[in-house]
Structure formats: structure tokens, C-alpha cells
Design brief:
Length: 874
């Protein structure tokens, strides 16, 4: 057995080998040591190898999915080795024959399909990037849903696209693995290198044509060599990991960068589009917007947030669908109730195609298609927008398949195929008979006994059973002669005589005994055969079911966005090809939701107008203190633009947005120590990316450019950056700064306007009004904010002195300023006294505490005065 293990392991050196032994997956040698540590399970030993103990650990087969998930999340790959025959079959080859085993699957982060291993509301993408001469491309697939996409992609755009797609695993050529490591290292994905042969475009085209059974790829569109190579590499890798059993893949769809808003990784992170700062969904735009009730609808929403559209017709059709759902609110809520009962059809289909499905996947498809019919009837309205009409068109086209599944399946099937009992009674006569024998064997024997009594005329005849003879017919010795004489002797075969009874059998009784004994296995085998037939029928309709699932996802998303807009009082934005950007009463959706949930405090809405003429810049230079809401204002306008181009209503009183081509955000401060980058360096790298890429249709939000270096250096960089945005990029931008000197640019650059976040000072404290107004801030109120943060009082007092001196120097000129700074005394505030324990109350104070004047008589009051005087002396 160990020789077999080592032979299999030699082919999968980079993976842990789950070696099936009965009800357990066992691991040995280094695999066992690594797995025991990663899974926190016991490490034991089994036998010896080269004179040393062999480490071993194992996990139960029935609980393997949970352990697999842990291992995958910790960066392992797992080769699953199954028994290809039973021990009984192996023994037929010899007493010491080893059960045949083989690896049936290589589990990697990008090839998961099991429900327990995946997040239902997120895609799990496997991507491949390839460079062919002067061209490159990215392809990606979700084998759990069959989604398959490809796009031409220059290497410089790889990081932004990985940020958009968030794949679990990226396939590259082994020759490029090290070169691309730095680009992908920030995304926490598994990087897998394949041999160059996997990226051969000629072989790739044949592989793709073979799986779709077409003669040419022209039916799917026109693809470059690089795109074909990337798609072929994905299919090659799937053949390796799935051991030749390919998932059900939808025809490849070619995407174009120009159709989506370009958003780089830093902007996605800063705006917290699909993940909050903690890495989870909490605090993200997705978490606030997600009101979908189906898994497919949730995945569609995440795709839309990750890839807002630039195509006006697409945006408007989505907005019209949401508006129609709001106008028909009662019907929308009925549809949402129906959608809540729709299972995940895409993933059920995928599991069936990979032979990892079960009876519940059949039932999921039945239930989902039934709900699709109900939704189609509910949506029957000729006045619907085109998007909803197209989505509805693919819903009610499965009546024959629904009838078949409804007749074939019980209402609540078991999880596992091996459990049986999922085929409905009356569907298959042979199965019903086998079940009757299995479940009602005693009744079948009783009926046979009645028949034998009737045929022989012997009322005392009995059918009995023991472990030696099995079933037999027993009569008393009185009737022995009758049974042994023709014509009964021709039918009843004598088997045994005892002192008082004779025992017989018949051909039909022997056959029935065999059938009863085998009925359980026979019933299960029949169900397995029927399962395969039903699965085949379903997979023949996979394309139509995929269209139905996509249609319900589209309907779910439109209904969810309508529900959200009604609930949050959002409005329909106007989106066109102009360079308008006018938002009245805009609000930050995430901050507003947090305020409502935590304190009930209303969010202060603000206007923003960055509308610009063709080829001209429009920049708001925003000043004001920290904590006043500058960053919130910047982010909310970026999010409103993005939401509008998703096709969603927006949190505002009104919004007119000329379609944005690119969205850039430079907000927040962080370092990148692993790459030797300081906070300032990261800031400059991100700013450089914006200035080098932004076009005149971009929307840019910048916060505190230049703050990570010396004051004059920072001011110079911020000043030059704003001039470049205005003169070269000519973009629409919000530029927040504490450098008040820059407000002078509003008088020099025609596209720059000053705006400030209003505050109020009251008795030395600052009150934040969170209102954005035209004009410039007179100062930053940094000392007041420091006081709010709890800096010690001597520090605050000293800061005020230094600030006054610096401001005086600014007014009187640089030389005077230097003299004032030189004349400032060193920090000489007396240190605060050491805290001391509070003094104990005196005897007099103790007496006073006990006195209740209203209850004292004049004599008692006089006596108390004497006592107080005595206590004070003490």
C-alpha cells in the first residue's frame, strides 16, 4: 500500500495527497506533518520507512469539505485520491491485492465548486494572463457558474483588472512567474506557473473548439492570438485539475476596457467599493447596496459595482428598469417574495456537470424553474422597459423539464446520492417493486403464503425463515404424503424433514428470496440510473437554464435597487455624454447608513457642481479643518457618480452626471514597508499614476497631496499637481488641502473654485457644521482638533503660543518670523503634579455628613456645634 501511495505522491509533489482508506482520507510523511499543523489535528504514525516511523494523520471523508476549505485558505493545494474499486473486488485478484486508487481531482483556490467551500454571493474566478510577442490578454472563468470571459490587456493594466475581478488564482507562464510576482502580490491570490506549451495559441484554439464542439471560434467573436492563448491555458489547467472532466462552460464573452469605467486598485481600496478597510464586506458600498434575495443577483451586483458602465444606452436601460420597479412597487415586492425561493441554478448546474452534484441539485433546478414560471406570469406587462422584457423572455421555456423533474423527484430529496429515496413513488415501476420488496418483504411473503394455502388446500401451511435454509414452506407431518405426491411434488421441492414437520421450497419462493435480499441494492442502483438520466436531460438544456438564471438575476437586481431607493429616498440620476457634474443634496450612502444605525443622527447633505465645458477643467479646491468632513464629501461624490453608472438611483435630491471614463482617488495615508515605501512614497506613486493616466472625462478626488514631507516641499508638489490637473488632464476634480496658500489659484486658473467645510468656534472650542460652502477657510483649527483628541492642556497651550508667533511672522515677513521663532522660550510649562490619592475626610467633615438640620432640636444643635469644634481641633 505504501508503495502505491509513494507512486501517486510522486506525481503531485506540490500538493497534499488525500489518500482514501475506507472512511478516511489519510496523509503520510511531510504531508501529514504540514496538514496536522494547519488543521490542528493529531499527528500519529503508521509503520516504518527506511527504519524511521512514518508520520500519519487523517480526516473523515464525510467532513472533508471543512478541512479542505481550511487548507485552501492557508495556501495549500490538495490532490484527492479515491478508491477506484471495493476491497471485495480487489480480493478477487488475490488475497494481498491492493485496492486500486487514483487521483480524481486537484483542489486549488480557483477550482472550487462545492457549496460549503464557496461564498454564495461572490464569484470565485480562476484567471490566466499571457503575453504573446507585442500583445497580451487576460481570461477568467468561474467554474462554479460557468462564466467565461476574455479581454486584450496590456501588462500595465493587469493590476487594476485583478483588483476589479479579485480572482482566487492566476495562471501565468513559468517564465513570467517571477516577473509578475510583484504586480500580483498585493491581491492575496495564488500564483500558478504553467509550462509554455500550455499557452500555445494553435493548440489552444483546438482545445477550445473541441469543448464547444465547433469548427471555428468565429461563432463566438474575433479573438487575438493572446486571447486565444489565455483561454486555452485556462482549459488546459482545468483538464489537469479536474482530471479530464471539464465543467460546463458558457461560450467565452469578449470584454472591452472602453465599455467600463477604469478604476485602479488604490481607488477601489480608498472608496471601499466591495470590501471595507478590514477586508470584509462590512463598511463597503456593496454591503449598503445589497438588497438582492438570490445568490446570482448578489454576484451580479458585485460585478456591476466593480465594473460601472460607460455606455449611456446600457446605463439608461438599467435606470429605467429600476424606475419601473419603483412605479409598480406592489408587484415588485411580490416578485421579491418569489425570488427568495430561487436556488442557485448556475452552481447546481456546474456541480452536476462535474459529477459533484446530488439529488438536491436536481430539486434545486426543479424549484428554480418553477419559480421562474411564476415570475414570468407576474411580470407579464407589455409596458415594461426593454431590460426587463429581455430578462423575462427566457423564464417560461422549461415546462417539459419541470414536468419531468416534478414527476421524478420527491419534495425534499436527501443530500447524497448514496442515501437513495429521492425518486418519487409511481415514477418507475421497477423501482416501486424493488422498494416494495425492500420495505414490505414480510407482506409479500404473507401473500405468497395465502396463495400456497389456496393452491394446496392445507390451511396450516406456513412460510418461515432461518439463517440456514433462508425462506422455506413448512407443513405438519400429517400433510407430508400430500405434499410429496403428484401434482404438488412437481411444484414443491422437498428440503428437510424433522420429527413433526416437512419443509419445502419452490422456484418462485427461491427467486423471491433472492429478490428480497437484493431489493435494497437494486433500488439504489435503479435510482442511480434514473439520476444519471435526469442529469443528462438537464445538461442538454444547460444553455437555456443559464439564460433563465441570468434573467432572474437581472430582475432580482432591478427589484433590489428599487427597494433600496424607495427605502432610502434615493433619486434617479440623469446620465449623459456631457461633462456635467451637478449634485444637489448629495449624501454618503455608507456613512449615512452607519449614522442611522448607530445614533440616528441625520446626515448633512451637500451640493457639488463640477460641470465643465468641453476640453476645460473644473476643480473645487476644498479647505477646512480635519474632522470637518472633507474626506466624506470627496468620497460621496465619487460614489454617487459610480452608483449612477452602475444603473442605480443615488442618495441626493437630484444628480446630473456626464459619464465618467475613469475614477481616481488619492485619499488616506498608508505605507508599504514590504517594498520599502514610506507613506509619502506611496502617496506620490498613486498621484503619479493619476496624473499620467487621467483623461478629460475622468473624475478625480485628491486629499492632502504633499502632506508627508516638509511644508514648502509639500506645498510646491500640491500646487504643481493642481496646475497639471487643470492645464493638462483637464479633468473634473475635488482637491482637498490644508495649504491655504493654494486658494490663490482660484484667481489665476479659470477652472478652479474655492470651497470650504464650515465650522463654528465657541468659547475656544470648534463645532463642525459639515456644510460645504463656496469660499476659502481662514485657518485649519488644528489646535482645536488636537484639544478634542485629548492632548494634554500644557501641550495645547504651548501650541497656541507657537501658532501665534508663526502667524505673526507670516504677517510680518520671513526674517521677522525667524526672529520670533528664535526668541520663543523653550517649552517650560511646569509638569503637571503627580496624581495623589484623595485625602480622607476629616472628623469634622464626617460629622457634617451625618447631620440632618431639619431633624435637630435646639439643644441637639448646640451640642453638635461643640462636637464639631472639638473635631476641628483634633
Amino acid at each position: 500500500m505504501m508503495a502505491q501511495y509513494l507512486e501517486l505522491k510522486a506525481s503531485y509533489r506540490e500538493a497534499l495527497l488525500f489518500y482514501r482508506m475506507g472512511d478516511f482520507y489519510e496523509m503520510f510523511f511531510e504531508d501529514a506533518v504540514a496538514a496536522a499543523e494547519a488543521l490542528d489535528i493529531a499527528l500519529t504514525k503508521r509503520g516504518k520507512h527506511d527504519g524511521a516511523d512514518i508520520p500519519m494523520c487523517g480526516v473523515p471523508v464525510h467532513a472533508a469539505e471543512g478541512y479542505l476549505l481550511t487548507l485552501i485558505r492557508k495556501g495549500f493545494r490538495v490532490a484527492v485520491c479515491e478508491q477506484m474499486e471495493s476491497p471485495a473486488e480487489a480480493k478477487k485478484r488475490g488475497y494481498k491485492a491492493v485496492v486500486k486508487r487514483d487521483v480524481v481531482r486537484l483542489v486549488t483556490p480557483g477550482t472550487l465548486t462545492e457549496e460549503a467551500l464557496l461564498e454564495a454571493r461572490r464569484h470565485n474566478y480562476l484567471a490566466a494572463f499571457v503575453e504573446v510577442r507585442d500583445a497580451s490578454a487576460l481570461a477568467w472563468v468561474d467554474i462554479s457558474t460557468g462564466a467565461f470571459h476574455v479581454m486584450p490587456l496590456p501588462t500595465v493594466r493587469l493590476a487594476p483588472e485583478l483588483a476589479r475581478l479579485a480572482p482566487s488564482e492566476l495562471i501565468v507562464s513559468e517564465a513570467k512567474e517571477r516577473e509578475l510576482f510583484d504586480i500580483v502580490s498585493d491581491f492575496g491570490l495564488a500564483l500558478t506557473g504553467l509550462a509554455r506549451s500550455a499557452f500555445d495559441s494553435s493548440a489552444a484554439e483546438k482545445r477550445i473548439c473541441d469543448i464547444y464542439k465547433v469548427g471555428t471560434l468565429e461563432a463566438f467573436g474575433s479573438f487575438t492570438r493572446a486571447e486565444v492563448s489565455a483561454m486555452g491555458a485556462l482549459i488546459d489547467y482545468l483538464e489537469i485539475t479536474q482530471k479530464g472532466r471539464l465543467p460546463l462552460l458558457k461560450p467565452p464573452q469578449r470584454e472591452a476596457e472602453a465599455r467600463n469605467v477604469q478604476i485602479d486598485a488604490a481607488t477601489r481600496r480608498n472608496l471601499e467599493l466591495t470590501h471595507g478597510l478590514n477586508g470584509g464586506r462590512a463598511g463597503s458600498l456593496l454591503s449598503v447596496m445589497d438588497r438582492t434575495v438570490t445568490a446570482a443577483g448578489a454576484r451580479l451586483l458585485e460585478r456591476r459595482i466593480s465594473s460601472p458602465s460607460r455606455v449611456i444606452e446600457t446605463i439608461q436601460s438599467r435606470l429605467q428598469a429600476v424606475a419601473h420597479a419603483i412605479e409598480n412597487q406592489r408587484r415588485t415586492e411580490t416578485i421579491r417574495d418569489l425570488l427568495r425561493n430561487v436556488p442557485d441554478l448556475d452552481r447546481a448546474l456546474s456541480r452536476l456537470s462535474l459529477d459533484r452534484g446530488g439529488p438536491r441539485d436536481l430539486a434545486a433546478l426543479r424549484d428554480g424553474l418553477i419559480q421562474a414560471e411564476h415570475i414570468s406570469v407576474t411580470l407579464d406587462n407589455p409596458e415594461m422597459p426593454s431590460l426587463l422584457r429581455e430578462a423575462r423572455a427566457g423564464l417560461a421555456v422549461h415546462q417539459s423539464l419541470i414536468d419531468l423533474l416534478d414527476q421524478a423527484l420527491v419534495a425534499e430529496p436527501p443530500l447524497m446520492l448514496r442515501d437513495g429515496g429521492f425518486i418519487a413513488p409511481g415514477y418507475d415501476a421497477e423501482l416501486d417493486e424493488a422498494r416494495q420488496l425492500r420495505d414490505e418483504g414480510r407482506g409479500v411473503i404473507a401473500r405468497m403464503q395465502q396463495d400456497f394455502v389456496s393452491d394446496t388446500g392445507i390451511s396450516s401451511l406456513k412460510i418461515k425463515h432461518n439463517n440456514v435454509l433462508g425462506y422455506f414452506i413448512e407443513v405438519t407431518a400429517t400433510h407430508g404424503d400430500k405434499m410429496l405426491s403428484p401434482p404438488l411434488s412437481e411444484r414443491f421441492i422437498h428440503r428437510q424433514t424433522t420429527a413433526n414437520q416437512l419443509r419445502f421450497t419452490t422456484v418462485e419462493l427461491s427467486e423471491m428470496e433472492t429478490r428480497i435480499l437484493n431489493a435494497g441494492n437494486l433500488a439504489l442502483e435503479i435510482e442511480k440510473r434514473l439520476y444519471e438520466n435526469l442529469k443528462t436531460t438537464i445538461l442538454e438544456s444547460a444553455a437555456e437554464i443559464g439564460v433563465t438564471s441570468a434573467g432572474m438575476a437581472e430582475i432580482d437586481l432591478a427589484a433590489a435597487l428599487a427597494h433600496l431607493a424607495k427605502e432610502q429616498n434615493w433619486v434617479m440620476p440623469k446620465v449623459d455624454t456631457s461633462r456635467a457634474f451637478k449634485i444637489v443634496g448629495g449624501r454618503h450612502p455608507v456613512v449615512e447608513a452607519a449614522l442611522t444605525q448607530n445614533s440616528g443622527t441625520p446626515f448633512i447633505a451637500n451640493d457639488c457642481d463640477l460641470s465643465a465645458s468641453e476640453d476645460a477643467a473644473s476643480v473645487w479646491l476644498l479647505t477646512g479643518p480635519n474632522m470637518a468632513g472633507k474626506s466624506t464629501f470627496l468620497r460621496q461624490n465619487a460614489l454617487i457618480a459610480l452608483m449612477a453608472q452602475i444603473g442605480s438611483f443615488v442618495p441626493a435630491e437630484s444628480a446630473h452626471i456626464g459619464a465618467v471614463s475613469q475614477l481616481f482617488s488619492r485619499v488616506g495615508a498608508s505605507d508599504d514597508l514590504a517594498r520599502g515605501r514610506s507613506t509619502f512614497m506611496v502617496e506620490m506613486v498613486e498621484t503619479a499614476a493619476i496624473l499620467n493616466q487621467a483623461d478629460d472625462r475622468a473624475l478625480i478626488i485628491l486629499d492632502e497631496i504633499g502632506r508627508g514631507t516638509a511644508t514648502y516641499d509639500g506645498l510646491s508638489i500640491a500646487w504643481a499637481t493642481l496646475e497639471h490637473l487643470h492645464d493638462v488632464n483637464r479633468a473634473r476634480a475635488l482637491f482637498a488641502t490644508h495649504y491655504h496658500e493654494m486658494t490663490a489659484l482660484a484667481g489665476k486658473l479659470p477652472g478652479v473654485e474655492n470651497a470650504t467645510v464650515a465650522v463654528k468656534e465657541w468659547e475656544g472650542d470648534v463645532v463642525f457644521l459639515h456644510e460645504v460652502r463656496k469660499g476659502a477657510a481662514d485657518r485649519s483649527y488644528g489646535v482645536q482638533v488636537a484639544q478634542l483628541a485629548g492632548l494634554p492642556a500644557p501641550v495645547i497651550a504651548r501650541a497656541r503660543i507657537v501658532l501665534e508667533a508663526l502667524e505673526q511672522g507670516e504677517r510680518e515677513g520671513g526674517a521677522t518670523q525667524k526672529t520670533l521663532i528664535d526668541d520663543l522660550p523653550l517649552f517650560s510649562a511646569a509638569p503637571p503634579p503627580m496624581p495623589t490619592a484623595p485625602a480622607k475626610p476629616s472628623a469634622a467633615e464626617t460629622l457634617l455628613e451625618k447631620i440632618i438640620p431639619d431633624e435637630l432640636t435646639p439643644r441637639e444643635a448646640l451640642e453638635m456645634l461643640y462636637k464639631l469644634k472639638e473635631a476641628a481641633r483634633a
